[in-house]
Amino acid sequence: MLQYWQHPNDCSGYYGSCSGSFSSVYAGVVTTAAQIVNDQEAVQFVPPVVERSGVEFNGKDLLRIIVPGNYFCMGFVTPAADEAGPITISIGLNGPGFGLYGANNGPAAGQQVVCFGFTGFIPRGTTLGLYNASGKSIRLSRLPARIAVFRI
Known about the structure:
Elements: E1 2-6, E2 12-16, E3 26-31, E4 35-37, E5 49-53, E6 55-57, E7 63-65, E8 69-77, E9 87-93, E10 101-104, E11 114-122, E12 127-132, E13 138-140, E14 145-151
Antiparallel strand pairs: 1-2, 3-5, 3-14, 4-13, 6-7, 7-12, 8-11, 8-14, 9-10, 9-12
């Protein structure tokens, strides 16, 4: 269901829920907590904002697929404004190192926003998380970090 919103500065538009009528299995988890994410560790969604159906969330950093099927998955993080690039974030299946990487290799500080997605079959019980694959610790800003999946 699309909903209309009005920005305080009179910019308007539409936004939607990841629970649209096309899929009854979905999850979206967002946090605005600034954090340091060590290499090969998962982004923490604490405190989380969670919207889900047919997908579990462990309350910290991982989604668990309950219903096997083909999914669309996406992730987004915003490093701190003075964090040096390159920044590499992966959607890890059952841990870090899956290889579906999203990376913004902009050299200028404050320009590393990572946004990416993939589709594919995900078996029941598979966990998904956003992992730092940069080869160094990175600092995330208070702008939202999110992971979202829905069965297609």
